[in-house]
Amino acid sequence: INTINVNLVDEFGVSGFYYACFNGNNKIVQIMLDDARVDVMMSKNGNWSPLMTAAANGKTETVKRKLCASE
User: Fold this and answer.
1) By the 8 A CB rule, do 21 and 29 touch?
2) Phi, psi of 15 (to 5 degrees)
3) Is 37 helix (H, G, I), strand (E, B) or coil?
4) Cα(29)–Cα(25) distance, rounded to whole angstroms?
5) Which one, of 44, 37, 41, lies nearest residue 66 by Cα?
């Protein structure tokens, strides 16, 4: 499992972590935050970060998780 690229993006330039934040899937967000390999700042095609998209979509619990993980 350590050989899996956790930062792969789809044809739209979107990572799994971005989708988890966008959808407010807090279980997946937490799992990915706990994995040091995940680039939590990877933006969608150089635009919004996962944190920005979670905030814009009203996913407050997701935002809190990300901010607490940054401490």
Assistant:
1) yes
2) -90, 165
3) coil
4) 6
5) 41
